[in-house]
Design brief:
Family: Belongs to the drug/metabolite transporter (DMT) superfamily. Small multidrug resistance (SMR) (TC 2.A.7.1) family.
Number of strands: 0
Shape: flat
Helix content: over 70%
Strand content: under 5%
Distance between the termini: 14 Å
Protein name: Multidrug efflux SMR transporter
Largest sheet: none
Subcellular location: Cell membrane
Number of helices: 4
Keywords: Cell membrane, Membrane, Transmembrane, Transmembrane helix, Transport
Radius of gyration: 14 Å
Main location: membrane
């Protein structure tokens, strides 16, 4: 259960990070609300997962999922360029996350 919550909270990290960028310094209401709700959910999920999982592993998985999904979303929407190198390095991050799960 802790791993599932951790993955969901990692996805919520991508939500709040993207909303933060779209809030334009908290001057736009809707993205600011999405940011606040996403941040609260992401942190609560991370805290819950850390009750059963090591702190270092939890944090690394949370950041890896969040960063990967944030970049993939930006590439899908055209906000960031797509390159073979970026895909390779994102794949390496995902491999590291999977490796941490396998080593747990």
């Amino acid at each position: 259960m802790a791993w599932l919550i951790l993955v969901i909270s990692g996805a919520l990290e991508a939500v709040w990070a993207t909303a933060l960028g779209k809030s334009e310094g908290f001057s736009r209401l809707a993205p600011t609300i999405v940011f606040a709700v996403g941040l609260a959910g992401s942190m609560a999920g991370l805290a819950f997962a850390m009750r059963d999982l090591p702190i270092g592993t939890s944090y690394a998985v949370w950041v890896g999922i969040g960063a990967t999904l944030t970049v993939l979303y930006a590439m899908a929407t055209g906000d960031e360029s797509v390159s073979a190198a970026k895909i390779l390095f994102l794949t390496m991050i995902v491999g590291g996350v999977v490796g941490l799960k396998a080593a747990h």
